[in-house]
């Protein structure tokens, strides 16, 4: 069973979640008997890092064109559909980043196949691909299998295993197979901050911060930890933070190794976006706040006292 994986990159910098997606694909291909082809969509001459070459792909195809841009999801999807056709792939895998979710849906549409979105587990068992994905805002997990049809799969970041294989993938550069499909234009640069869905540590703030300026406390803490800063919808609706920072049902789904929720009550819609985090630390002055129901560790206290102390302790340990 051949599999293709979109290796999400920008100017040669590959998303670490794509390396995990290659690992998942390799496990599937080894179990089912097949090969993994990674697809890189970049301008010509872009080099591929060693960590990507040994991450599980047997082949890496770099599809070059001059006008690749960061938002060309429709073009990338067509490219994946073309490579899938060429390699006879049974599955297309992307990481469930913001761009990955878009690309996987568009690729599935281009090929007329189903999507298994935002999976937390994918394996080959009893002769078919089986996948597990959270449903009902994370209240339940759905286990499904696909027998003979092709399928497009997105995998939640931080859920795959990064592999280091002995043999590096063979790299082949070729011009794009897709003509005249660049309908999306990149219009804005990124913030330069750690990407929320990719981050290993996320520090999120809610209405308990009282003023938008107080997010500086969380930004400083995030700086010490190398973390991304997230937010509840309440503060996004108040205009304190951009929507791209929102975690939850109508924002981003994150599953970092450590999620620190500060002044966030823990409404079900917020939990939907973060309850699959490995370790959750909640800081809230209300001992009855629902966030403590999902927290691994809880600090009942005033965040304006707790955060500066926490930051100074962490600084003394980490720096
Ligand atoms: C359809 C729909 C979709 C939604 N999608 C999302 C979503 O994607 N993401 C999301 O987050 N929400 C979402 N919501 C909103 C959600 O229901 C909550 O309203 C929201 O999450 C609350 O945000 P909050 O926890 O910041 O604010 P609050 O609920 O007001 O909680 C503030 C918390 O701060 C604590 N606090 C106050 N002062 C301090 C202090 N000094 N020190 C420590 N703690 C303090 C309080 O005890 C309280 O628990 C959605 C709602 C709907 C209806």
Give a summary of the structure in a few sentences.
The protein contains 8 helices and 17 strands.
Structure report:
It is built from eight helices and 17 strands. It has 319 residues and is of the alpha/beta class. The protein is globular. It has two domains: 3-175, Rossmann fold, CATH 3.40.50; 201-318, Rossmann fold (3-Layer(aba) Sandwich). The strands form four sheets. Strands 7-11-6-1-4-5-12 form a seven-stranded parallel sheet, sandwiched between helices. It has a five-stranded parallel sheet with strand order 14-13-15-16-17. Strands 8-9-10 form a three-stranded antiparallel sheet. Helix 3 crosses helix 4. The mean pLDDT is 91. The structure holds flavin-adenine dinucleotide.
The CATH topology of the largest domain: Rossmann fold
The chain-level structural class is alpha/beta
The count of domains is 2
Write the CATH homologous superfamily of the largest domain: HUPs
* Number of E-state strands: 17
* Cα shape: globular
Would you state the CATH class of the largest domain? Answer: Alpha Beta
The residue ranges in which pLDDT falls below 50 over 5 or more consecutive positions are none
